[in-house]
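Long-time lurker. I teach an intro course on protein structure, and each term I like to show students one example going from raw sequence to a predicted 3D structure in token notation. This year I'd like something fresh instead of my usual example. Would anyone be willing to generate the tokens for the chain below so I can use it in lecture? Attribution to the forum is fine with me.
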Amino acid sequence: MRLIPLILFFFLWIPMIGSAIDAQVLCLGGECSSIPAEYQILGNFAEPTFDRIYTNRFLRSMGDNAVLQNLNSNQSGGSNVGRYRLGLGYTVSQGQAKARDFYYENSELRTLPKAGVAASPSLSFTVNLGEWIRSPYAKQWNLTTHFFPYEFGEANIPFVKIRNTEVNGRVFNYGAVLRYFPIESGVSFGLGIFQTNQDIYLSAYDRRPTQFRIDGDKRRWIGQNDLFYQSRITSASLDLKYNYTIGFLSIVPGLGVVYNHGYTAVQVSRFAAISTMENPDDFSSVPSAIGIRLNSRHNHRSGFGYGSLGFKLGQGNFSFNTELMAGKEIQSINLSLQMQF
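-- Reply from a regular --
Happy to contribute to a lecture. Here you go:
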């Protein structure tokens, strides 16, 4: 899914620490005796699936996409809310970091996405702390929280189309930003904490047998492919914004940094019937099958900087807002409708 982010994405990068690939291979049938050592199996299947598609850089981009989308879903804005505010919006994040070309055209795994996208609706609530704490100083603080549990399939993520692949999953992101307005100059400082949770499932079957090689010998196989992506990332952010208002239009540029702690994990499974060594089209004379399961978990100890630019069109207690956020090779946009009361 381009949500792999499911998913999956300016100025500061702290490298992600990743663990090694864990692979299990099971072969049943007479043809298994002609397959060389396990090294050949893992060399043909594990390497192209993970090292070519799901590189550390790509997995980090998928995680960063999800985090930036979660940050942008908060809708804290850059103006001091007098009492309370409710907001409903939708946020999308797109990464520019792409997986390398999948040169090994051996199954429908080649249809898996090579760029990360994250998206979900969000509901936000903002309160001026002066409503809860009777102090003039408290009126300079806003607290904005947001959340939205979102279950999706290909029907309600229309921008994601993966050929012949079933897509479903769940996103449950939430967070809170405490924003301080020190003086009547439009400047504000935000401190946030966020939790990014994603579970994404992909499933595809081979429409026809496809070719692969084992130790130079041509074979064909046909079967089922499944991928499960999961992210659990806790983030802390710090940002600076400036609100400039002209009539009913407010322009809010800003800068921010975020630090992430968590993981992204990927599991790929393939179960397929394999042809004989003598005849690549013969699947029946010596029935044989192979099952491959690959697991990789990448731990995020990463940070990145981002720039933001928000626009607000206000009329009475209602306002329409959009905010763009961009980091290195990742961008996000939020559209929301807000009401103050």
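Some talking points for your students: Residues 28 and 240 are 60 Å apart (CA to CA). Residues 17-340 form one domain.
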